[in-house]
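Blackboard transcription, Thursday session:
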Amino acid sequence: MDDAQTAQEAIAYYREQYDAIGARLLRLQGDLRDARRDAQRQRIIATLIQQLYQLDVAATDPDRQLGERLVALLVESLHLDCAALLTRSDDQTLSVEHAFGLDTGFQFTNLSELPEQAHSAAPEQLPTAVRAAIESSGLRRWLWSAPAGAEAMLFLGRRHEQGAGVGLSFAAGDQAIAQSVLAVYLALSERRRAKHALHSARIDYRTLFESAQDAFVIIDGRSNALLEANQQALSLLGTNCEQLQQRPLISWLIDPDPQGWRRRWRRTLISGRAEQLECQLRTLAGQPFWVELRLIRIGTLERGHLLLVARDISKRKQVELQLRHYAFRDELTQLPNRAQMYRRLEEALERQRQEPDYQFALMFLDLDRFKRVNDSLGHSLGDRLLVAIGQRLQGQLSPQDTIARLGGDEFLILAVDVPDPLVAYQRAQRLERALHAPFTVSGQEIFTSASIGIVLADRHYDQPEAMLRDADIAMYQAKRHEGREHRYALFNPDMHARALADMELERDLRHALKQQELMLYYQPIVRLADGAITGFEALVRWRHPQHGMVPPNRFIPLAEDTLLILDISRFVLREAGRQALAWSRCFERAPIVNVNLSGRQFISSEVATETSQLIAEVGCPPALINIEITESAILTNKALALAGMEGLHAQGFKLSMDDFGTGYSSLSYLHEFPFDSIKIDQSFVSRLTREPRTAAIVTAILRLAETLEKRVIAEGIETPDQLAALQRLGCAGGQGYLFSPPVEASAAEALYKQPSWILPSSAGSGNGTVAGLERGEPDQDR
Amino acid sequence: MISTAHRLALGKARHNDAFTAAQQAARQAMDQLGSAPSWGLVFAGGRHDPSALLAGLRQVLGEIPLVGGSAAGVITARGTTLTGFECGLILFGASLAPGAIVSETGLCDTYATGQRLGAALSAACPEATSVLLLYDSVHSVSARELHLAGPLIDGFNQGLGEHQVALFGAGTLSDLTMEHSVVFNGQEPAEHTVVAVAMPPGLTSHIRITHGCYPASDFMTITRIEGPQVLELDGRPALQVAAERLNRSVAEMAQLSPATLPLTLGEKQGAPFAPFSDDLYNNRLVVAADADSGALILFEADFAVGTRVQLMDIDPQRMIDSAREQTEQLLADLGHVAPVFGLYIDCVGRAMAFHGLDEDESMPVRTLIGQHCPLLGFFSGVEIAPIRGRSRPLDWTGVLALFTLT
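(Written on the board underneath:)
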């Protein structure tokens, strides 16, 4: 065999093998294709369902697209001429919703007789109307699935053979395919409706969430991550979603206290009980604001979220703050008021209980003679002065100290770091110095001073009231330091005892009024020209059953403070009137009885009526009574005082200005008020012989009185020199221990009948003696 | 200057009602085009009434020339559908007006018709370089005859004379029953009609074909053929030869359909023993077997006695691979030049419904071309594309034409 032959045989061989392999390949490919086709047919349901699901997820308009895709897929995969989804348009009609290859007017009626499924194998079994509808559509083969109770029906049909191996008739499994895909379609539709409802609910939720007036923030219960926040939350915090996400929630709190918040969050998440609190947040720009915050768990214990509902309560807080301000602030000075001081005192006492080294003092500061400022310059200016004083005092305090206005002209100062009396005094001195400089209010320069009661906190105080009481007592003690360089006093238990004694005294004084323990003593008023007694000043005395005679300066101030002075004055008037009447019956020239009226009585417009009634009750002519009134009594209420005095004068009472020279000594009062006489205060008399200046003043008073035709009485004449000086100056009358101390009525009457003194002639007797006269006790009476 | 994006636009819709489907597709395209179109290329599902379809298009587009025809299915970048209720449309802006649109009716003598058409086109647009040719595939329903593309193309080329063009196109087909088909000749739907469009001078065509068939036999010579019926191969009854290869009986073979006959006859172009390449083969789908005559019936009747063919195996995966390879190669050939639109003419026999795959072979084309430009495709009967410099009718082929701006 040559090479050519071998090659030919090889070629033939390989051709034959190639053909054989090719044939085999063709057969295998055919078998494979058949198998694929079979598998594909088997997979039609799965494929259809898969595609429907994909569309259901991806479609922009699933309601429309899903039905349309279903019928398209069926036409495509089953090689149909038509596929249609029909839905119930009413109880008796199924109309085309989606169709390919079928007129949209196609419909089935008389549904009560419509089988759930049918195919063209037995058309004679169909209701006539149904059959007619099918035939009119030109379909030669059909099948449908119309499950009982379902809203939709799937209808498939062919009009002619489809080619490519697909004939006219439906395959055996096509009915099952129709049933299955319809079931899936209906399920998807139902699911979509449910999703739509859910979506609507979500929209409703979202609408509620976003339109809520409250701020909503939702936090993951496990990670504490921010999940959602509504617009109101962003608005409240002045931020946006991104910034809110970036910052820890805790950082929006003014007082973060992370551990406390975590505990609160966990408590809410675990218990499921909502919590509510108020806290302060700050905006992104740092602006603080108040919120009422509710912590609510949403979801389950295992997978709960925390809903924070915040409501801006800044306005409410502001109102509360204002109310609290009003409640704890003095409206005039804007300083803390009594209530606030009580709170601070309570806090300080509590702190001292916990920290024994914590030392503080309470100072009770009362302005001296502030009432005169009010009375003389008016309340408006007085108020402004109080404001200025408050500010000046505050300027002397440390930031830890508290100053409060208690009311009127009283201030309380809680001074911290005051461990001992020395420091307390230093602090009080500083306040004194601060008040030393004059205040200029509305162009008026006003000098003032204050009395300061100090109490050092110690552990026996457990209530603010006790400290305040003791500071008050100390302040009253300081008041008694009038004339001294410093007017402050540190409380000691003796003061308390004194205060208790005052209380006891007050009680006894009330008792005394009822038990007739009070009596009148009379001090003669002597005509200096000849030593004759022209009248007596009635002075009240108290004979205490246990303590004996109580000095007037012990109980009169108390009576003034407690207003018992009114009852005492009535007693004095009545008794003086009775005595004056009695003397008028005994003597041809009856002595005039001087009676002191308290300034308290001039706060009533009825002073004249009441006084005349009292005098009338005892039958005493008003002309026998000389009413002594201090300048301060006039100043309390000038108008009322004027009216009262004019009333008294009109009734026939004589009137004297008492203690002239101690107050403002307004000369205009002498002119304006119907005084008959002036009583020069004993302080002038005591200095008269020692100070030429005083003599000059007294001379001026005498000249003025002479001009105004007022009689002048000098009080407190204790020495012959004083008497001589007064005589020399031309003073008309006088009284004092030089002549006689106050004595009982019987002794007074005896003196009236026969004075115990013989006065020298006033001329040239400057240093002469007065027969029968000796220096007595200083006159401290009323 | 109108931007490229606005030179043409795609619309696609599917609806039970032809008029509505057409309206929707037209509105989509118009919305994208944003200016008056100069003409349109439209392919619509065979179950639509073509007149209603054109009416729907014109209701939106006005009286512009509309060229196209029936399609068993429509392809776009978004997917392939074969319900018969689709409508796909490409609108061309004013700058892409066609060189000429000519049509001829009367496909009984396809060669003569083609000749007239070629002459008319040459006269109307002597400068035409790229021509789209569409013809109604169905010649007779009762005898189930198709119009022959081979003589039509030969006649067309003859009519062109010296004028050489790149000819591509298809025989339109409504569905696999092969009972009905129309073309849109510019004005109306027409049967037994062929239409040729001299593509806009501003466009240059780039064409590739895809097959997916492997040779599965030695070369055989057609020794007897009558039209589409191949009666003998190498002197033996052709059906007998095929039955032996497929290990089936003649009777079984006669019952088979294109869907189950995994067979084409492939005519290799050029050197017979050159390495395998898709574009060397001119395949003809065996659509049926006639037990009485012992013939294999081809879709296209352009083989002749003496044609050397091979039995070709249809491999679905190979179709997909081929489509990907050819598409990638075509895009690579373009280099940096961007295509402005793609036209994919795909044999209906290749549609996924016939070979049991879940993904059809147009997938790579849709995916790759869709990234660059609008893509419109349709399923056809016979495809026309140049092979080795000569346009010819093809079967079991995908013809991908990409157009770039000149």
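Lecturer's comment: The radius of gyration of chain A is 57 Å.
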